[in-house]
Design a protein that fits this description.
- This protein is of the alpha+beta class.
- The chain has one domain.
- The protein is built from one helix and three strands, in the order βββα.
- Strands 1-2-3 form a three-stranded antiparallel beta sheet, covered by helices on one side.
Length: about 80
């Protein structure tokens, strides 16, 4: 989870199979928590620019640093 170059919040699983773009951090976190079974330790915050990449196949995302975030986010429409 992080922000893209346009300031939108991005959520994407480490396998590149699930994700979305959100207008605020709260909605992005709610989606991430929903998708991971409501485990805050499973949400990773990415520093810097984080672009949603729907072209990557499973297992192609780089390993991300483990950071816990405690806000809630909503699922993408």
């Amino acid at each position: 989870m992080g922000q893209n170059s346009r300031g939108n919040w991005v959520v994407q699983d480490q396998r590149g199979m699930c994700g979305g773009i959100f207008v605020n951090r709260a909605e992005a976190l709610r989606f991430a928590m929903f998708e991971n079974g409501h485990r805050p330790q499973g949400v990773l915050m990415v520093p810097g620019v984080f672009e949603l990449d729907m072209k990557r196949g499973a297992g192609k995302l780089p390993r991300l640093p483990r950071t816990i975030d405690s806000q809630y986010q909503q699922r993408a429409a």
